[in-house]
Amino acid sequence: AALLERRPSTHLLAELQPLLAALAPQAPVSTPRFIDRLLGRDLVRAAHPDPVDGRVRLHLQRSAVHAEAVEAHVGALDDSLRAIDAWLAMPPAATNAAAANEARRAEALHAAALTTRGQLALARATALAILDQYRHLRDLLVPLWRQALAAEAAGAHAEAAQGLAELRASLGHRLHDLQAAASPSSRPENTT
């Protein structure tokens, strides 16, 4: 009964929900409106970006601690299941007329042991399913999320590099035009 009461799998499951929420795509930040610029909200937003990566890392650390507890819990459930199976495998005591009461008691204990075994097996299967979900999140979804962030950052970097190249080209043309305008050969001759 104590194994069924303390369930570290519920703590792991409770930690996986905010992890999934942190991994969910966020709504794109709209371009700042005039009032946001006037009040400086755009600067605050730029200075304090949403620390999603930190939250994901924190949830992963907490989930790892809870996963270790679930694995230990599964080991304890396995030990209990083996003990119940060993008890159920024992041959029933010899029944005679004087031990009829004892036989009914043994049958009731046998039925209770089968029910307990079923509950422990179900708790074990549930804990293993939650561990599989945790491993799936940790090994597949989090790396995919990080790759998507890296690709997004690379795209933004490429756009910034392209904008910088265009700006340099524009400045180069302007500088060339200014130099051409300032050169003595381009000035009109003063004929006085």
Explain what this protein looks like in three dimensions.
This protein has helices at residues 2-5, 8-23, 34-39, 41-47, 52-89, 100-182. It is rod-shaped. The chain has 192 residues and is mainly alpha-helical. Helix 5 (52-89) runs antiparallel to helix 6 (100-182). It contains six helices and no strands.
* Span between termini: 113 Å
Query: Quick one: how many beta strands?
Result: 0
**What gross morphology would you assign?**
rod-shaped
Question: Assembly state here?
Answer: single chain
Order of helices and strands: HHHHHH
Backbone CA Rg? 35 Å
Structural class category: mainly alpha
Give the low-pLDDT segments. Answer: none
Classify the beta-strand content into a percent band.
under 5%
The average pLDDT is: 75
What kind of sheet is the major sheet? none
Fraction of residues in H or I helices: over 70%
Q: What is the tally of helical segments? A: 6
Secondary structure elements and pairings:
Elements: H1 2-5, H2 8-23, H3 34-39, H4 41-47, H5 52-89, H6 100-182
Helix pairs in contact: 2-5, 2-6, 5-6
Short recap of the structure:
With 192 residues, the chain is mainly alpha-helical. It has 6 helices and no strands. The longest helix has 83 residues, at 100-182.
Any key phrases for this structure?
rod-shaped; single chain; 192 residues; mainly alpha
